[in-house]
Amino acid sequence: MNWPTLSTDSPYKTAVAIQQELQQGRVAEAASGLAELIDALSKSEKRALKSQLVRLMLHILKWHGQPERRSLSWIASIEDARDEIGDIRDETPSLNEQVIKDLWAKAFVIAKRNAEAEMGKRSSAERLTWQEVFDTVYVLDRD
């Protein structure tokens, strides 16, 4: 069985194949498949975490880069991305703060590129802090 390919193509089919291996008494083969499935699912969750981190950073970059266009929907997107990251971390505890820090630089580059494309101008941001991304409360000024 080509577990790496199968687990990448379809986690469901991999689980079914593992079940069949167990039913036929091939425990070592099933264990191999299970290890590949766990690895594939972990990579999938890490990609989801990175995607949400990019989305979160993108909206914060736009918040700083286009203050005249700030909206409730941007605030909602920031909060939603934070919630999604929290959910991913709750479901996959191995995706901890250190993993986020390891993804940080690459996520920032992607977010900045995408924010610049959406804004139609260059961003002056050279970095985002942990506080800006996860702790700052973004509200509309109602002066």
Please provide a written account of the structure.
Helices cover about 75% and strands about 0% of the residues. It is an all-alpha fold. Helix 3 runs antiparallel to helix 4 (about 70-90). It is elongated and about 65 Å long. The model has no long low-confidence stretch (mean pLDDT about 95).
Topology:
Blueprint lengths: L2 H7 L1 H13 L3 H39 L6 H20 L5 H23 L10 H6 L8
Short description:
This protein has 143 residues and is mostly helical.
What labels would you give this structure?
143 residues, 76% helix, 6 helices, single chain, mainly alpha
How many strands in all? 0
The H-and-E topology, N to C, reads as HHHHHH
Global Rg: 20 Å
Distance between the termini: 65 Å
Structural class: mainly alpha
* Helix content bin: over 70%
Low-confidence stretches: none
Strand content: under 5%
Number of helices: 6
Q: Taking all residues together, what is the mean pLDDT?
A: 93
Biggest sheet details:
none
Outline: elongated
